[in-house]
């Protein structure tokens, strides 16, 4: 039992640490629907992995990155409104994934664990994926921190000043796809975006600088994982949704606190 909890706790901590800073950019640039679209594509990756009998982690990462590239390319063409395009791709990829999974009749899988996460089933191999992918994400964020901040404040002005805005936007979308792919097992396809958005939105109430918000966001994510696992263990509730509920309660408390201070 102790190994089960430790693996789940370390996995959740790893995801919280990388989802925090990345979630700040999702909140600042209003990319929540991007996250939903990319998370839905993760299930399509699961289906492809099962049908082709390849590693599910690799299949999910490949599918998520591919859809991220398609999203960026289609957005650059500006032939369709962004929300319409994202809605089409989100629901289509999720539906195609569910249909494709039905063809893998000889493989028994728990769809609920993919949709809502199975944090307590995390193993050592999952930890390697989470911390390996997390190191790549954090390294890329540190490398592109200034261009991403400049793009967030004013994209056109950042481009005039010589920042690689298009490259930064592409990398940010790919990083979102990578985080969603490696974190899918923690809170599931339907909840992963919330783990990026809610701690960042909570941190926004207290931070005075972008760097403070990134650090606080990771901190609130760690508290959410700890509280969610505690509730799941003692109340026998699903681990992934419990983490999101705790994060949401912290957000409500932050709203009440800031309202009372005004």
From TrEMBL:
Keywords assigned = Cell membrane, Ion transport, Membrane, Transmembrane, Transmembrane helix, Transport, Zinc, Zinc transport
What highest taxon heads this organism's lineage? Bacteria
User: What compartments host this protein?
Assistant: Cell membrane
Cited Gene3D superfamilies: ABC transporter involved in vitamin B12 uptake, BtuC (1.10.3470.10)
The membrane-topology field of this record reads:
Multi-pass membrane protein
Instruction: Report the sequence similarity comment from the record.
Output: Belongs to the ABC-3 integral membrane protein family.
The name on file for this protein is: High-affinity zinc uptake system membrane protein ZnuB
- Native organism is Endozoicomonas euniceicola
